[in-house]
Write a sequence for this structure.
């Protein structure tokens, strides 16, 4: 039975100025009708980085759709079934036929603009392995410090670092996803494109009413 690969939306949902980590500067570009999104892939999540580069080079991500969009949360793509999908077709079950082991890194968290891997839920995926192709980019929203402390006090988040508090209370993100989904890159240009796509009208499956085509390339 096929299962939709979802990112859990739990609470009031959150970009930090961009990359503080020194990387080897592998960039990918998401080309959309609204403009291009430049993303840095992290070196310290090598399995996810290598996999995305492989799929891009194979043409896997050519002419796909952002098939799930939730304002103040995220935009999701990577389902090969979205190529030439019919209007109203529910998407989210497709992939390359394999998963990727989780690569959780405390320095990589769900700030606005974070690139992360979607996955199936904990019940059937207790190891939190990532989809082999589906990804999302965080839009999120700004939190107050009190909201973050509530998350922390109810054991829904490990103790926040000063950097995380500064980021989540200024540029925002989705902190409740930290430690549950692998973050493996971040937007360094074109963050406004995320806001544009996230604000589009959607159907009952959170699919944009008017298709949002994209293709990925290596910069």
């Amino acid at each position: 039975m096929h299962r939709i690969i979802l990112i859990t939306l739990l609470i009031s949902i959150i970009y930090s100025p961009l990359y503080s980590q020194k990387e080897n500067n592998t960039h990918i570009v998401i080309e959309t009708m609204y403009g291009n999104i430049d993303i840095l892939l992290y070196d310290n999540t090598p399995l996810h980085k290598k996999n995305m580069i492989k799929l891009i080079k194979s043409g896997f991500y050519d002419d796909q759709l952002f098939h799930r969009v939730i304002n103040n949360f995220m935009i999701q793509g990577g389902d090969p079934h979205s190529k030439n999908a019919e209007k109203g077709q529910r998407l989210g079950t497709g992939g390359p036929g394999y998963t990727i082991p989780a690569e959780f890194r405390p320095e990589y968290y769900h700030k606005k603009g974070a690139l992360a891997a979607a996955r199936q839920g904990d019940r059937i995926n207790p190891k939190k392995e990532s989809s082999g192709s589906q990804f999302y980019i965080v839009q999120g929203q700004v939190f107050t410090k009190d909201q973050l402390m509530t998350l922390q006090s109810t054991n829904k988040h490990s103790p926040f670092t000063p950097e995380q508090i500064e980021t989540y209370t200024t540029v925002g993100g989705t902190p409740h996803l930290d430690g549950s989904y692998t973050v493996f890159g971040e937007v360094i240009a074109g963050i406004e494109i995320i806001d544009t796509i996230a604000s589009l009208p959607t159907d009952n499956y959170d699919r944009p009413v008017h298709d949002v085509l994209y293709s990925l390339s290596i910069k």
